Amino acid sequence: MITTNDENIATELRKRYWVGVEKSTFDRVGQKGYSWQYDITQADSIKGYMTDVQAVIGIGQLKRLEGMNEKRRMIQARYNEEFKDIKGFIAPEYSHTVQYYTPEWEDRDGLCEFMSTQGIHTSVHFQPLSETTYWKKAVKRPLPVTNEVWLKLLSLPVHDSLTEEDLEYIIISVKSYYENRN
After folding, report:
1. pTM
2. Residue 99 pLDDT
3. Which of 26, 61, 142, 165 is deepest in the core (most CB within 10 A)?
């Protein structure tokens, strides 16, 4: 879902979310009655409008949004506090919505593998496009910061349905990994 209070952005997005059709059926009806005529003036668009069912779910989720975000911010703060003394840990920038919790870790891959053995799902959300098969064909320019930082990024679970027990287990597992490494 995209929301905006900028009419120029809204107008541009409307052109793109329905395979390039620039006028909705509602707009084509207008005051003269229905017209089937429409135009497509651009190719860079998608079929991205939502169904009624998706809209109902979205409206329901919006009613819970602030509470869900508050829970995610609490998890973010707890992780930051609990992991601050781990060597090589760098907390991510503060996030109001905490879509991902992606700090830098020493030995990211080792931590990832260990967490998997503990039944905890982690992820590398931000592999550079330059490291993917398709984009490796493109002209490459040096990306020294990207190439260094992405190798340290590992996301931990951060969602509003995590229980206190889940959170404690994740924290204990991360600390256990770093306490028991070589």
Report:
1. 0.74
2. 93
3. 61
Q: How far is CA 98 from the centre of its chain?
A: 8
Q: Which CATH architecture has domain 65-180?
A: Alpha-Beta Complex (3.90)
Instruction: Give the largest CA-CA distance in the chain.
Output: 77
What are the extents of the domains in the chain?
A: 1-49, 65-180
The residue whose two tokens read 């679970």 is: 157
Name which of 45, 54, 37, 177 is nearest 105 in CA terms.
Answer: 177
Encoded amino acid at 33, one letter: G
The residue written with tokens 């404690």 in the block is 168
Query: Do you know the residue count of the chain?
Result: 182
Using an 8 Å Cβ cutoff, are 163 and 103 in contact? no
Q: Minimal CA–CA distance to 151: which of 108, 181, 110?
A: 108
